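Issue 218. Parser rejects a valid record. Input:
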Amino acid sequence: MSEQQAGGPEREGAVPTRGRFPLLDRVSYPADLRNLSIEQLRQLAEELRAETVDAVSTTGGHLGASLGVVELTVALHAVFDTPADRIVWDVGHQAYPHKILTGRRAAIRTLRQPGGLSGFTRRSESEYDPFGAAHSSTSISAGLGMAVAHHLRAAHDPAYRERNVVAVIGDGSISAGMAYEAMNNAAAAGPGASRLIVVLNDNEMSIAPPVGAMSAYLSRLMSSRQFLGLRDLAGKMVRRLPDRLERTAKKAEEYARGMITGGTLFEELGFYYVGPVDGHDMSQLVPILRNLRDADDKGPILLHVVTEKGRGYRPAEAAGDKYHAVAKFNVVTGEQSKAPPGPPSYTAVFSRELVRCARQDERIVAVTAAMPSGTGLDAFARACPERFFDVGIAEQHAVTFAAGMATEGLRPFCAIYSTFLQRAYDQVMHDVVLQNLPVRFAIDRAGLVGADGATHAGSFDLNYLGCLPGMTIMAPSDELELLHMTATACAFDDGPIALRYPRGNGLGLALPEQGSVLEIGRGRIIREMGRQSGREKGGIAILSLGTRLADVLKAADLLAAGGLPPTVADARFAKPLDTALIDNLARNHAVLLTVEDGAEGGFGAFVMHHLARNGLLDTVRVRPMTLPDRFIDHNTQDAQYREAGLDAQAIAACARNALGVATSQQTA
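Output the parser choked on:
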């Protein structure tokens, strides 16, 4: 393994806590764990927990989930031969301790920082990250694919040692249908799944019976080579019985264990269930994991471990969200750094107007997929609890569930991040759009999102929604426009409608008590082109969609300072287009820029298609400004838009270049 693959070399003095944690200081890679005693592993876990808290206090990030899996992380790397054996972390925000143990301790304080470590697992970052994961519920599918690939390779190469594959998935993530699809397939994958171990990290006690000494004893017993060998012998004997008796005997054994352990559901899906196990007790975890590692031909296994989110850090344990996601904080007090007071977030503005409308209209209902606070629907849940539905990590179900309510005359809002709505695209098309059902899609986190990086960027919704017939798409340029568009969506019953808005705060505009309903498909002129006074060869028009308008207006000021004051327009709607506005801009200007915070093939493409179809591309030079055709890594949002070429300087430069103004004439 190269130092570069592992996130850089460990160097004396590179880690500010070096010297505080004697055992952790001896661990550069997981191989250093494998001769440690259980007692030493316990101490290492405590040191690793303290290091994780200290690191995240300086960077912010997802803390609670990582604290809950510290012992599990240590045990997995102590028992399994990583990176040859694969550990697949679901979502990845629980993988900070894993990163520290796998050669990235010196870089852990660059987490989610520009040029630093990703907040999620990432294949390009380390060979200890076999699968990138920032969206949930993928680990079992990916792990099964790896296990089958190893098995096929071993079948053709007798010298190849078949790897163990461990998929660690939380009780929230396992609520998604994809996890059950994967488990169902694992049962049918035959020997290809024989070395797949799914670790269900249950940190909410949602499906776990009480954990005690008897449960721990039974788990060790059922995972032991002796028990598995006896079970295999019994299976061979039972197979000699008539078919009906064989099936009866197998069910009896499964249900007997199911009554004791609660694992009947997983047995029905074809997994051998072990658990529940205390996920913080190293003396339980290590022997059970060793048993599962060493068992032959055991088939897919599900090990159920019970953990506590935020474990070992008192402020996290006491917090309602267990410090799921935190800003920088004081390690001693747990107090998080607060941003200076400013304008409300776009999410809060949407939430406020939706609650107001819902109090006046009992037909309005709200659906989210495990993100009530992130989408602002927690306020709706408090105001209208009987009309709020959190369906768990199940975006596909959320969309079709909303469609079902729409068929019966309700006015459903489906509030899902742009990046997560991608997971339900077939349901949007087939279950909503094809039937022209009035489902309202509140698409949060549109555009670039900062520290969460490319995995969470809302780059593609204009593309994947804009191609669907009958879909209405709105994009507010500021929080006042969002207020109006939320009111518009509440009143719109003619088919599906979406409003997309970014992460972060508004501009600080004064907001009225309630929004106004907008005319569908009608944009607006923000500034008329002023008197030209330079070596220009015609006028400039800039047509903006969404919150890039603020930078467009700054670019307009730069152009005006150089004698080229442009026309600025706010499209408001990506679909239907305001064709009259577009035609007017094209006919009366030499250059037309379109600006959007989405990928190529979105709003700008819609505009150009309209112009080409009507012969107007022959008379105007169009320059679409979009996100570049590549992923943009985690950084601040402002820095990301500079990198994308969508800041004021880049917009002004694009206009000048299209107009043919010499570089020497450009004014910064």
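Fixed in the parser; the record now loads. The chain is about 40% helix and 10% strand.
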